[in-house]
Amino acid sequence: MILHLYFARRFVTGFVLISAVLFALLILVDMVEQARKFAEHDIGWQRLFGMTLLNTPETLNLILPLIMILATVVLFLSLARSSELVVTRASGRSALSALQAPVWVAFIIGIMAVGMLNPIVAATAKRYIQLSESIRAGGVSTLSISDEGLWLRQGGDQGQTVIRAWRSNADASVLYDVTFLTYAAQGGPIRRIEASSAALEDDGWVLTGAKSWPLELGVNAEGNAEVFETLTLPSTLTLDRIRESITDPGVVSIYDLPGFIHQLELAGFSPRRHKVWLQTELARPFFLVAMVLVASAFTMRHTRFGGTGVAVLASVLLGFGLYFIRSFAQILGENGQIPVVLAAWAPPVASILLAIGLLLHAEDG
User: Fold this and answer.
1) Are residues 171 and 113 both part of a single domain?
2) What is the pTM of this model?
3) Distance CA 299, CA 77 (A)
4) At what angle do helices 64-81 and 284-299 cross, to 10 degrees?
5) Are residues 29 and 117 in the same domain?
6) So what's the pLDDT on residue 105?
7) 159-191 pLDDT, tens per residue?
8) pLDDT at 148
9) Which residues on neighbouring strands pair with residue 231, listed in sequence order?
10) What stretches of the chain adopt beta strand conformation (E)?
11) Are 208 and 196 in contact (CB under 8 A)?
């Protein structure tokens, strides 16, 4: 038990140090990228640094498997160089027994990443998107889906428009039973429009079966209402931005994701991508365990045998290969080529079995 705690402490120390170093590097690199991205807008260095802090957690979350591989490599290389690994094996402990502590620590870190880091990343990513749109477009365009339908907000220098639709087609190109509520730039509502459908095209919103009511003070709204067979309204939104807002599951906390999936189904959208993302996040602890096993399969050897650099490179490359396969399976699942559960759980399970096979081959030949 004492030996397992010692290995766990060494592994956690390496993981924290590597995470801190990579986080600092990500801050520096992303700071330059944010300065380039918003070079046309004078937002100041303080706001630029704030944008960087909002964007960095998402990147750190993506490279978590790489951090796990590097932490495992650092652990076993240090144990091999100090001959502690040799002493451990001489005491009768097998390689799989020595791996218990790093594996359990990786699994716990994976659970913490799903339960704690995921909501943080979702909140910061959503806030980053909102601030980016506000800086670039001069107004905020947001989207939300609830039991009351689909809500959109488009903004600009002339004011804000709130859009509510009860449902949409699968690709979000047409909204049905739509209400547009237009607000003045420095005032309250000035116009309400209801339409049977609204399609977003290059010229703006094209409404069919529309009726418009003026909402200015002192004006009879119903008496001055107008009816249009088709009506075109300007828009700062694009179809791609709406689809990205709807289909990006990374901005939804894992705790809110099941309810959000249900709301997507009610609104008429396909929730398949969100279902794959949910299952992939739930399988993340097992994938991190697989990264530990893969890295240990190449580095649990004494340094006097040589080839340490090649072993480290091989473990990192294999880790990248497994990560690519996981991402490819996720894409296949999102496109409906393979079942959701298979897309999310097959890569981590296969990676664990592959790593265990490599370990058994290295130990027993």
Assistant:
1) no
2) 0.77
3) 6
4) 30
5) yes
6) 94
7) 778 888 887 776 667 888 888 888 887 777 888
8) 67
9) 207
10) 142-146, 149-156, 159-168, 174-184, 189-201, 204-214, 226-233
11) yes
Q: 53-72, pLDDT tens digit by residue? A: 988 999 999 999 999 999 99
Q: In this structure, what token pair is assigned to residue 142?
A: 């947001």
So what's the pLDDT on residue 325? 93
Q: What burial letters (b/e) apply to 105-124, b meaning 16+ CB within 10 Å?
A: bbeebbeebbeebbeebbeb
Query: Which tokens in the block code for residue 244?
Result: 């990205």
Q: Provide the phi-psi class of 162: left if phi over 0, else alpha when psi is between -120 and 50, else beta.
A: beta
What is the residue range of 156's domain? 142-236
Contacts of 322 (CB under 8 A, 6+ apart): 290, 291, 294, 347, 351, 354
Lookup result for tokens 């300007």: 234
Q: DSSP assignment, residue 41?
A: S
d(CA 261, CA 224): 41
Tokens 């079995």 — which residue?
Answer: 353
Q: Of 236, 257, 292, which residue sits at a domain end?
A: 236
Residues 130 and 271 in one domain: yes
